[in-house]
Amino acid sequence: MQFGRTQAIRPRLKRSAWPIQLHLAIFIAAFGLVLVLFALGNAALPAADDVKKSYFEYARRTLNGEIPYRDFLVEYPPLSVVFFIVPGLVCYLFGGLEQTLYARIFHVEAFILEAATLWLSFRLLCKVYPTPKTEIFVPRLMWFTLGAGAISLYMLQRFDIGATFLVTLAFYWFYAKKPGWAGVALALGAATKLYPAIILPLALLYLWRYRRDQKAALRCLAGFSATAALLILPLFILSPGGLLAVLKYHSERGIQIETIYASIIVLGHYLGLAPATSAIDHTSIGFNSAWNQNLSSFSALLTVIGLGLIIGLAWRATRPDHHLRADWLIQVSALAILWFILANKVFSPQYVIWLLSFVPFWKGFKQPLFVLALILSFVAFPLMNDELFRLDWQPMAVLAVRNGLLFIIMLHIISPLLKSGFARPAPENLLVAGVNPSRD
Q1: What pLDDT does 308 receive?
Q2: How confident is the model at residue 204, as a pLDDT?
Q3: Which residues of the chain have pLDDT under 50?
Q4: 182, 193, 223, 307: most buried, per Cβ within 10 A?
């Protein structure tokens, strides 16, 4: 009798999963169409082409035998070099390293990582919400697809999708009960773009305090630490000052024009309180303003304090007598990374790509608001680049609205966490998400 019941359940799960896979194929085909359109119109796009100007040079010099961080400065963490080198190696299969060919292969690399992240997001949804319901999963993955398409101007010209893929992989391994591998993926992500390291203390709190699984927490920490050491120690041996130079480079950056602090500086400029002019600062648009240094220091303090408060709230939430929602770790990680983006003194448009990991786990108006924020990210820059450099009010208003939308999303993430994440969640909320209300 038990065998018959099991046989009856399996076909239903198999039939319900097929439409989702069909939609996934359509979504990935949409990515391919965007890639083709991008390739056809790439020369006419006004965005700064970091692929040809920076990434190609990093790849060329590395493949010519020079050692990054010792022989030349790379402004990114060490694993980023892998994303630059791979398209260069593929170039040799087509006759040799050439700038235009390199750029096209880099765009294909970004497309592959984009499609892989979408597929991995589906697998992660199946892990967090065990019953694959088409009516729930497809809209969530559709918003991921729309978001990726909306920011494709930067998606295909930056390596940030590599870090997004690694974060999604870390969550997948975490919910697959492979904490050691989750720690490895987080370390690889941090060695690509730094921000995934923010997730580590939240994951450790969840395992150690809430799950009372000290072995799993130690495996996660060991995976992260060992991977980080393997990546960083050789560079310190080859060039002790190389990575320190990268940290110094970023610490010396001023207020970038797309941040919330930029709105304060420009408002002070309009009111005549502190005249300001735009200036190129570490390859991005910054300011010459009397308020620049104070706001830069304040941003560092605000970022640290905010992350500390989020970790403190996570400590309170992960008491063993609490009952956390199944996706608690994903939601609180999204909160921490959103805060890191908004409170930071630098906010480049590609940073919003980091949030794609979390879009399939958002509900309600957060998803359309996020897609709108993505669109506004490239309306101001690069489509209004000249006006932005003149500090005209129109692009500054667009950026202020974009940042306001992200702030609203952040508030709506923390609200249910405060209500249900730090106590017993309402069963009906879990059932709507396709989750069994039992302890996740």
Answers
A1: 95
A2: 97
A3: 1-17, 421-440
A4: 182
C-beta separation of 422 from 316 below 8 A: yes
**Omega prior to 240 cis, within 30 of 0:** no
Q: How many CB atoms lie within 10 A of CB 169?
A: 23
Please name every residue paired with 276 in a beta bridge, in sequence order, or none if there are none.
Answer: 289
**Angle between helix 179-193 and helix 80-91 axes, rounded to 10 deg:** 80
- Answer whether 105's CB lies under 8 Å from 90's CB: yes
Round to whole Å and give the CA distance between 187 and 225: 7
Q: Are strands 284-289 and 276-281 parallel, antiparallel or unpaired?
A: antiparallel
Token pair for 266 = 């420009």
CA-nearest of 369, 359, 396 to 139 is 359
Cross-strand partners of 72: 68
**Measured between alpha carbons, how far is 136 from 363 in angstroms, rounded to an integer?**
10
User: With left for phi above 0 and alpha for psi between -120 and 50, is residue 219 left, alpha or beta?
Assistant: alpha
The predicted pLDDT at position 44 comes to: 58
User: DSSP string spanning 161-198?
Assistant: HHHHHHHHHHHHHHHTT-HHHHHHHHHHHHHHHSGGGG
Residue 275 to residue 291: CA distance in whole angstroms: 9
**CA-to-CA distance for 370 and 364, rounded, in angstroms?**
11
The beta strands (E) that lie in 68-175 are given as none
Buried b (16+ CB within 10 A) or exposed e, 312-328: ebbeebbeeebbbbbbb
Cα separation, 258 vs 346, in Å, equals 7
Taking CA atoms, 122 is separated from 13, 113, 174, 181, 433, in Å, by: 15, 14, 15, 19, 14
Instruction: Name the phi and psi angles at 64, rounded to 5.
Output: -85, 5
Give the DSSP H/E element, type plus range, for residue 289.
strand 284-289
Whole-model pTM over 0.85? yes
Q: Distances in Å between the alpha carbon of 416 and those of 31, 330, 357, 411, 435?
A: 33, 13, 19, 9, 16
- pLDDT of 43 reads 61
CA distance between the termini of the chain: 28
State the greatest distance between any 2 C-alpha atoms of the chain, in Å, as a whole number: 81
